[in-house]
Specification:
The complex is a heterodimer of chains A (246) and B (186). Chain A is of the alpha+beta class. Chain A has six helices and ten strands; from the N terminus they run αααααββαββββββββ. In chain A, α1 crosses α2 and α1 crosses α3. The interface between A and B is large, with 53 and 79 residues.
Amino acid sequence: MNRIPDDVAALISAHALGALEPDQAALAEQHIAASDECRRAYEDALETAAALALAVADSEPPADLRDRIVAAARAERQPVSKPAEKAAAAPRRKFRLAGLLTPSTGFAVIGVAAAIVFALIAVSQHDSASSARDDQQALVAILSAPDAHVVPLKSAAGGPAGGRMIVSGNRAALVSSLRNAPPGRTYQAWGLRPGGASPVPLPTFSGNGDVVILDDVGQYGGVGVTVEPSGGSQTPSAAPFAVATL
Amino acid sequence: MEAEPSDVLLVARCAEGDEGALAELYDRFGRAAYALALRIVRDATQAEDVVQEAFLDLWRTAARFDPSLSRPASYLLTFVHRRAVDLIRREQARPQRGGDVEDIASRASTDDVPASLVASEQGETVRRALADLPPPQRQVLELAYFNGLSQSEIAEHLGEPLGTVKSRTHVALSRLRELLGEGFHA
């Protein structure tokens, strides 16, 4: 088992306590996403941190809070977009690859990786069935296009980081190989524009096997990925830890 | 008589859209969640909002909950903590966040909360473990977890080097984990 360096271990402990500034928190998330040891250390630290909560004597919440929570949960089951999802400017287009990347024939893209045998399942519960179908069709169109090509996500240091994009014309499928985002956090894609213009918020996704379809990528110089609070953000809370250069 | 469903089973039912399971989780952990939120944000209305959002976080992410990595109670309390800390950080105007460190450990014996409202035996275990930490270690944990201060804010507040605060926080959390023992689960 790899030993976690002291400074990284300290970073992970502080993160579990919620005591990092956004840039440091993003760094901690990178370690947690990149290493099983770090992930385990983080989960252990979260458990211990949560134990601190129990040191506070219980307080009686107002009697109607239970009903309000249940009513709000019920309301969310309706296929309406949550406020948090409205925050993302781009429509949420996301689904999951179940079986994947087995060598076979078929799609043009796969000079690199072989064809994808995929089952598209578990479309986000807030997506409508028709947009799920649209997304499946979009993915098939991207994968089978003659001009489809793979652009890897890379870390600042230039190493592979968390997945790849398959680009065809003005559209792309971002295929994530990141570990699932920690509780309360989500990954979010950003359209990076040249000249220092602020990044354009793109859909959020949760982790390994998630696929997001991105439209109009031709206007971006690249696509970056950050870790954001659940629901996504309007502006990135840290520099992207992974970037695909288009 | 049927055994009560486990916490993990209740989260699984939430993932299937069972609101009754969410209500049951609230009955089990709602008071601890509210207490934590209130301790951090120090405002009853805001604490209610935090608790509601945290339960909805659990509701929305129940399908991704991994019982091999965490327990339902700590999963929920992590949401509560994040929501509460995010809230006080947004409220830049809130005065004296760092200036008022309540010594939780000292409340173990002096709290005059009615016995029925005192957190479980587990709460007593945690308070005892906190009391066993050297005071400087206890202090950095409390400033971080309950006051929502970042590592650099703690360093500034204490007038100590950032590196000292980082390593002390890590040692404190590791030591707390040892004191609580392997068998302890939030």
